[in-house]
From TrEMBL:
The lineage of its organism: Bacteria, Pseudomonadati, Pseudomonadota, Gammaproteobacteria, Pasteurellales. It comes from the Bacteria. SMART domains: HDc (SM00471). Transmembrane segments: none annotated. It comes from Caviibacterium pharyngocola. Pfam families: TraI_2 (PF07514), TraI_2_C (PF07515). Residues 95-255 form the HD/PDEase domain. This is Relaxase.
Length: 642
């Protein structure tokens, strides 16, 4: 076998030296959010990815030179093709570079799992030994392309010159941005594996594998997404993919009870959103469906939803209650589903579609707020063409008004996500204040620590080791958005204006304002993320949720609620007092060779009819005002970094 491979591959030894300690730090994006393209040597030059390559080599019986030809080169082509794209929009490995990390991880698992299978089945030992390396290659190649179709049919990629980039065009020639395609076909990307595999896998490898018809045909089935015809090779790749996904989501692939990296409430939320994207049928007009979306919220069939959430989480190695009533109680206590007036999770309803479909029986439904069901509020479907009629135990129609009850999601113990209304925000021009606008933004370094390497290293040891979780939520990066934000001309603030207030008054006035703000938030006196709210929650470029105080409105509200007579100079003085506390984050701007900073940030607002902007202060330390609560960001607001 090795002699045959040597005859097929006539290549020289690679001149690229694998660094012993490769902690390659390179800038991901420029100031305008364009992502730099990199060659494979740079993309793979991190400690984590080098360890993956080392683990893969350990599972194949060949020299380093042969490994470079058969496996290293396809992996390098794969790296240049996927660049820094994520593996999913908001599920596993959703950070920049997630597709490359996930791909290497799946290959590593597949190479190891293949050692546990005797292939081909029911063949003589001599034949199995003869085909051993071919089946190993098939497992690695199938794992290599299992998700690569996503970068063609799930993601739209645009180069800086405005042209669309496709994977088969090779290394991007310019910086790029990307966005996920709405309404994408989730069953299409596996079919493209064999097509794109032709650009990755050398023809000599196909010539070699074609000498074994069973290996070749099975590989073609799996690479084309026909897992039902891929036999044990499909099982190897699917298990490897499942293990990688499980680690990323905090589950335990060995089904050992250990503390997960994410709380059950977060897992339930991720499972729900995953099912809405790929499984559940919503708003079927002519007959039964899994759910219906109306102005009152998302209505889901209770049993179907519970069963599918349970099945999905159990596949990830995550323990969930087996009894639906207990699962409903969990979802209700976390605020994932809305409670009825009787404080139960189940709503009894009749469905009446405009198409004429109106079953006589009532349905047991769960009601969920749109901002919980969809991470991006714009992803929800159109409203159901019909009515959801709530009935009581006597089958009589009752009011469809929502109970007046604060909904919260407890993320573990004392952690909570306070769910706030994501109503459409219209033009709040009266809340705007002029600020200087620049096209540059603060550079940020994102170090992604992948502890799954330790698990993989332990997996390859003879003695069992403790499972180490993979990804920390803190390092998950937000997907780069392709949509261009409008840039209206805004007057610049006079930076020379100052107020002659002593340091003592600054501190005293600022502290009183902060205490008033904290008390109001604690007592739920201030709406958050609503149409006329003065307080919002927004994500920055690295996905961190910040408190956004609309200025000058929030400071004027302070005087109004205090009953004080005030003038514009008093509002400005209060702003200076707040700034003196140093709680806000300044925005760095660059002008030629100079750098400066300003106190104000700007958010673009997407309203039902038009767009507008809000100006205010950005406070990274949300815990100061919200305690252990982690709030959902306002999907209608986008922080303008530049």
């Amino acid at each position: 076998m090795l002699k045959l491979l040597k005859n097929l591959f006539h290549t020289t030894k690679s001149n690229v030296e694998i660094p012993k300690n490769s902690a390659a730090l390179f800038p991901h994006q420029n100031a305008d959010g364009w992502i730099y393209p990199y060659p494979a040597t740079t993309l793979l030059n991190t400690e984590l990815r080098q360890k993956y390559l080392g683990l893969i080599w350990q599972q194949v019986s060949m020299t380093k030179e042969m490994f470079n030809s058969i496996y290293q080169q396809p992996i390098e082509r794969y790296a240049e093709m996927v660049q820094l794209l994520p593996a999913s929009e908001n599920h596993h490995h959703a950070h920049l570079g997630g597709m490359l990390d996930h791909g290497l991880e799946v290959i590593t698992f597949a190479a190891k799992l293949r050692q546990n299978y005797v292939l081909p089945q029911n063949a003589a030992p001599e034949e199995q030994s003869k085909q051993r390396d071919a089946w190993t290659a098939a497992a690695i190649y199938a794992a290599l392309v299992h998700d690569i179709g996503k970068i063609v049919v799930d993601i739209e990629i645009q180069l800086q010159n405005g042209q669309q980039w496709f994977a088969w065009n090779g290394l991007p020639s310019q910086p790029y941005k990307f966005k996920y395609i709405k309404g994408r076909d989730y069953e299409l990307h596996p079919v493209l594996g064999s097509f794109l595999g032709n650009y990755l896998i050398p023809k000599e490898a196909f010539d070699w594998l074609a000498q074994y018809p069973a290996v070749f045909s099975t590989l073609m089935y799996v690479m084309s997404g026909h897992y039902d015809k891929g036999g044990l090779l499909s099982e190897i790749v699917q298990k490897a993919d499942q293990y990688s996904t499980t680690l990323a989501l905090g589950g335990d692939i060995n089904k050992v009870v250990q503390r997960p990296i994410q709380s059950l409430s977060k897992q339930l939320l991720l499972a729900l959103r995953h099912l809405l994207q790929q499984k559940l049928k919503i708003n079927t007009p002519q007959g039964p469906a899994d759910g219906w979306f109306t102005q009152d919220g998302l209505w889901l069939m209770s049993k179907t939803t519970a069963d599918q959430i349970r099945a999905y989480l159990m596949e990830q190695g995550i323990s969930v209650p087996h009894d639906n009533r207990k699962l409903f109680d969990e979802m209700q206590s976390y605020g994932i589903v809305e409670s009825t007036m009787e404080n139960t999770a189940i709503w009894h309803c009749r469905i009446k579609a405009d198409s004429g479909w109106s079953p006589p029986n009532t349905f047991s439904l769960l009601r969920i707020k749109p901002e919980i069901a969809w991470d991006n509020i714009d992803d929800h479907p159109k409203y159901f063409a019909g009515n959801i009629i709530i009935v009581n135990n006597d089958d009589k129609e009752i009011s469809n008004e929502k109970p007046v009850k604060k909904t919260s999601i407890n993320f573990s113990g004392e952690e909570k996500i306070q769910i706030q209304s994501q109503e459409n925000i219209e033009n709040n021009s009266q809340e705007n204040i002029s600020i200087p606008i620049t096209n540059n933004s603060t550079d940020s370094t994102n170090n992604i620590e992948e502890d799954s390497t330790k698990y993989l290293l332990n997996l390859f040891e003879k003695s069992p080791q403790e499972l180490i979780n993979t990804v920390d939520d803190a390092i998950v990066m937000e997907t780069t958005i392709l949509e261009k934000q409008p840039q209206p001309i805004i007057k610049k603030t006079d930076s020379d204006k100052s107020c002659k207030i002593s340091a003592e008054i600054h501190e005293s006035t600022g502290d009183r304002f902060i205490n008033w703000l904290k008390k109001g938030i604690f007592e739920d006196r201030f709406p958050i993320n609503k149409t006329t709210a003065k307080i919002h929650l927004v994500k920055d470029e690295v996905g961190h949720i910040n408190l956004f105080l609309v200025s000058p409105s929030i400071f004027e509200l302070y005087f109004q609620q205090s009953g004080e007579v005030y003038e514009q100079k008093d509002v400005i003085a209060l702003q200076y007092a707040f700034q003196a506390l140093g709680l806000h984050k300044k925005r760095i701007i660059s002008d030629k060779n100079k750098q400066d900073s300003v106190n104000f940030w700007c958010c673009s607002v997407i309203g039902p009819r038009k767009s507008s902007r809000l100006t205010g202060y950005l406070i990274p330390n949300t815990e100061l005002f919200l305690g252990s609560k982690v709030l959902l960001p306002n999907q209608r607001l986008t922080l303008i970094e530049g």
